[in-house]
Structure formats: structure tokens, C-alpha cells
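Progress narrative, Year 2. Work on 3-hydroxyacyl-[acyl-carrier-protein] dehydratase FabZ from Marinobacterium sediminicola advanced from sequence curation to structure prediction during this period.
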Amino acid sequence: MMDVKEIRNYLPHRYPFLLVDRVLALEPGESITAIKNVTVNEPFFNGHFPDHPVMPGVLIVEAMAQAAGVLGFKTMDKTPEDGSIYYFVGADNLRFKRPVVPGDQLQLDAKVISERRGIWKFDVRASVDGETVSSATILCADRKV
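Result:
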């Protein structure tokens, strides 16, 4: 549904921090399904961990937040070029179930729970081959730059 070129219109992140490669499905105001292809060439694998590469949990959370950000921007029909930025401001009930390693395709799912005065709450989940690797409830704030 969206390739990385279009995703870049909705997220201010750039390499090496853009963690959404493709959007598979998106229903504004409701949900998004996106993917992150995890390759051994990712810069963080050089130090985390060289002999046993594992994607850092904070980056899995960031990938889920970025997918939620695309959903929020599309729902509001805004982009960062409009002078709006989405800040990741909190996570509740964060859980990690298994490591993410090179070769995995991380599926990122986010659902809108609520929005009040620019504070969005999302139910997010990351999975590999249908198996949950991480889940949380996250908060994002839409603010003017």
C-alpha cells in the first residue's frame, strides 16, 4: 500500500533510523500493518551483539511507534512538512517475548485506542511469522515544530 518513498513523506526519520520499510494495510483512524526487514547489515548489529546479533528492544519499540506515527499522520491528513511532529511520549504494559535476529521480517501492527488534545494512544504489536515478539500500549503527542 505504501513504499518507503511514500513513508518518508509521513515520518521525519531517515537512515539509519527509519524503521518502517513498507505499509501493507492502513485504515485511517483505525489500524495499520507495516513491515521492517531486519538484515545483518543494520548498523546496530556491529555492537549488539557482534557474535550473537539481536535487534535492540528499544528499536523494536521505536519501529512500533513509527508505524503508529504513520497511522496518526494519515488519520490527521498531515505530514511533517505541515509543521507537525509526532513525539513518542510513553509506553505501558511493554513486553518482549523473543529476540529479533537478522533475516526476520518484523510485522508492525498498531490500532488507535484514543486521541485527546493531540495525545494519541495506540495498542501496538510486533511479530515474526505470526509469533508476537513485543507488545505495548504507547502514547504519541502531535506537536507543532
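The chain has one domain: 4-144. The CA atoms of residues 73 and 119 lie 12 Å apart.
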